[in-house]
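Sequence in, structure out. Go.
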Amino acid sequence: MASTTSARPPGRPRAGVNTKVFTATLSTVDDLGYARATVERIAAAAGVAKSTVYRRWPSKGALIVDCLLDAFGPAPLTGTSRAELMSSTIRWVAATIAEPGVGDAFAGVFSDAVSDPALREILSSRLQDPYRLALQDALGEPEHRVLFFIDVVVGVLLHRMGMTGEPMVDADVDALVEMVLPQFADGPNEA
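Output:
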């Protein structure tokens, strides 16, 4: 006798909701700016209820952090030397921040985190720590040195976005690479 039950769990299909919300988030941030990209507007752009968004993310900041994790993906730690690995990492961060909505979302959540300790914890533990740990492992550098690398690279790129509204041009990314690499040329530095 054939079973009449479905293999699908009851309720609405969930596949693709995160993708739709992340796409809508970056699109809304790109169109309206971070401050005006409310959860309500993001939900409407995604074609989902606001409650659907809040069930997955307790705040706009938590949504933005997960959206950034999705946009950046795993760190493509490539290269046969320390210099190549660091250069490719800087170029990857610059290219991702230049994608529509990403730089604005990153700068906005970063700015909000300055006065929101809970968001700062989410930003640090969910976004920064996985990349920091991957870089520490790949470079054999101590935490404080990798944090310095992240601070310099991301700080410069976000500063440019904040001051001009535009991502850093390739020639300036090249200059950033040339400025940062000598700080790590000799390998791990415990000082």
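Check: Residues 91 and 173 are 7 Å apart (CA to CA). The first helix runs from residue 17 to 32.
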